[in-house]
């Protein structure tokens, strides 16, 4: 999936989580967007790959695309690392939610993801789409509408608490 789809996916997932948690929604969404971009560090042409070209090249050489950085192992390792270096649970939660949303969205592409890395098995949904295709535009639109609805829910909850 493309960067913009991942961004709106990260926003939607963090807003959904914000409905059931007491974390600051702005912190969750900010961290969620960053987390949603992080797995594509394995791809030099991605937003985050262009920001950190050297790291991106190294990760790509070592693991290839949609491999280690799109796996459960990566999410667990990053979770352990973040918990030790970032003292703000809301930021850690947002980053992990964003990363998970990224991996789930990429499971909707033909290539799938190496979810169980180091096992070399590609995991994808029964229905998949081409990156940048028409279906991805529909997914993008649906996620945008959903995130607007979730924002509306949060705002009305906030107003009713005043
Ligand atoms: Zn990806």
From TrEMBL:
Query: What is a single Pfam family found in this protein's UniProt entry?
Result: YdjM
Classification via InterPro entries: YdjM, YdjM-like
Q: Give the residue range of the signal peptide.
A: none
An MF annotation (GO) of this entry:
hydrolase activity
List keywords of the entry alphabetically: Hydrolase, Membrane, Transmembrane, Transmembrane helix
Stretches that traverse the bilayer: 63-82, 138-159
Q: What is this protein called?
A: Metal-dependent hydrolase
Organism source for this protein?
Lysinibacillus tabacifolii
